[in-house]
């Protein structure tokens, strides 16, 4: 009882001090921002239905690790070089990866035909195809959609992403040194990640003989066993969840706007026909489809706030200083929903990416994969996946929903770190070959 009274007294004292000091001001040469409360930090200023809105409010008011994703400095440089070289060897950006995706797309078509037009939850299918592409690149093989080991991997990845995005996990990030001693979602996340690590580790052991034994003598090497595991884990999370969620959002939008779906299928019929699979070379002749895929990515805005990275040295910015070690977040959504770049940023409109002649136009504000040196490692693969999966499905199927288009809700589900489409069910109806 005495301890709780003491803590309450300390909290009230801190609040009184803050109230007495008035409005927050810039501290020295640090950028200005809202003053954190004792113990709670800026938690009460965050919108639990979307951290993005909170960050944008802060921006408007005040501003006008391990693995290749979260590493910084020399470690990041070494891991990124290795990852890019390895992915090139496995065919990223070459015909190798295109053929893998085409094969997976045809496997999906056969699986969807088995549904015979019944209502389906698309989550399973889109997770399966994107995870299989990563498995194909990383492990050298794909899995059957009903393989128990593969199904368990999908379950762990999806559950972990949901838990990491939850409010309780955001709280744990703030107070991990204290909350780690208590029950919570963080314990299940750690358990899931350990099981995924075991899955990855088994494959690493099977391929260990392919590693360069001469590199063992290099004490400065950043690429050790743990970084290998974490880099593969990062590829699974980044390469599976984001692309599959983009596809889920995309087909929800196709249900919402059937006239757009019909126009895409008309372009598919004209350029590809119905007797050969779509190929990457077709994209240049399909500007409307390409523009729709761009607009799906912009409108969905899956990761509004990019992955945090660290300032490697004291950095001067607009008269302020960002001290070495400061975490910085690229607020990608501020560009994707900026009216000076996109005429109607809150509307789904493929014309955002088409010029007056119907040709795809470049827009510097389009950065769903982030920008600069820290741009998404798998951007090339993701772009190929989105085009080939999207066109292959619409080449073979029409889509339908029991919900009328005007009643379909596009509002994303509550999530701490990303925009996730609402749950929906969809029918894949085989098209007649013409």
What does this structure look like?
The chain has 434 residues and is mainly alpha-helical. Helix content is 52%, strand content 4%. Strands 1-4 form a two-stranded antiparallel sheet. A two-stranded antiparallel sheet has the order 2-3. A hairpin with a 2-residue loop joins β2 and β3. α5 packs parallel to α15 and α6 runs antiparallel to α11. About 6% of the residues have low confidence. Its cofactor is heme. GO terms for molecular function: arachidonate epoxygenase activity; heme binding; iron ion binding; oxidoreductase activity, acting on paired donors, with incorporation or reduction of molecular oxygen, reduced flavin or flavoprotein as one donor, and incorporation of one atom of oxygen. One of its GO terms (biological process) is epoxygenase P450 pathway. One of its GO terms (cellular component) is endoplasmic reticulum membrane. It is a peripheral membrane protein.
Spell out the blueprint of helices and strands.
Layout: H1 2-21, H2 51-63, H3 67-70, H4 73-89, H5 95-114, H6 122-138, H7 148-164, H8 167-174, H9 176-179, H10 185-206, H11 225-256, H12 258-271, H13 287-300, E1 309-310, E2 315-317, E3 320-322, E4 327-328, H14 333-336, H15 379-396, E5 397-400, E6 427-430
Antiparallel strand pairs: 1-4, 2-3, 5-6
Helix pairs in contact: 5-6, 5-15, 6-11, 7-10, 10-11, 11-12, 11-13, 11-15
């Amino acid at each position: 009882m005495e301890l709780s009274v003491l803590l309450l007294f300390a909290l009230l004292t801190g609040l009184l001090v803050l109230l007495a000091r008035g409005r927050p001001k810039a501290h020295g040469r640090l950028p200005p921002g809202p003053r954190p409360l004792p113990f709670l930090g800026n938690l009460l200023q965050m919108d639990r239905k979307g951290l993005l809105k909170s960050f944008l409010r802060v921006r408007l008011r005040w501003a006008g690790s391990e693995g290749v994703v979260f590493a910084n400095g020399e470690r990041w440089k070494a891991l990124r070089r290795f990852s890019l070289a390895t992915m090139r060897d496995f065919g990223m950006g070459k015909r190798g990866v295109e053929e893998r995706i085409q094969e997976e797309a045809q496997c999906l078509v056969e699986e969807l035909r088995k549904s015979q037009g019944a209502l389906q939850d698309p989550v399973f299918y889109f997770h399966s195809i994107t995870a299989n592409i990563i498995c194909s690149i990383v492990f050298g093989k794909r899995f059957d959609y009903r393989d128990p080991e593969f199904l368990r991997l999908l379950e762990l990845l999806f559950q972990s992403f949901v838990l990491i995005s939850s409010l309780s996990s955001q709280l744990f990030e703030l107070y991990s040194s204290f909350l780690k001693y208590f029950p919570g979602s963080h314990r299940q996340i750690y358990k899931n990640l350990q099981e995924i690590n075991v899955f990855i580790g088994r494959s690493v052991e099977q391929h260990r003989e392919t590693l360069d034994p001469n590199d063992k003598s290099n004490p400065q090497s950043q690429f050790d066993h743990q970084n290998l595991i974490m880099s593969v884990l990062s590829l699974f999370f980044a390469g599976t969840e984001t692309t599959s969620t983009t596809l889920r959002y995309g087909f929800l939008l196709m249900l919402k706007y059937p006239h757009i779906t019909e126009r895409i299928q008309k372009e598919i019929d004209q350029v590809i026909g119905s007797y050969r699979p779509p190929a990457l070379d077709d994209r240049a002749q399909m500007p409307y489809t390409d523009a729709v895929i761009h607009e799906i990515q912009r409108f969905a805005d899956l990761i509004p706030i990019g992955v945090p990275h660290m300032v490697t040295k004291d950095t001067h910015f607009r008269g302020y200083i960002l001290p070495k070690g400061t975490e910085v977040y690229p607020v990608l959504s501020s560009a994707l929903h900026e009216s000076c770049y996109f005429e109607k940023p809150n509307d789904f409109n493929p014309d955002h990416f088409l010029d007056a002649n119907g040709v795809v136009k470049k827009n510097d504000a389009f950065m769903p994969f982030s920008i600069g040196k820290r741009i998404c490692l798998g951007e090339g693969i993701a772009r190929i996946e989105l085009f080939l999966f999207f066109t292959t499905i619409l080449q073979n199927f029409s889509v339908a929903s029991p919900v009328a288009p005007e009643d379909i809700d596009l509002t994303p589900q509550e999530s701490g770190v990303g925009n996730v489409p609402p749950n929906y069910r969809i029918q894949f109806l085989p098209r007649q070959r013409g």
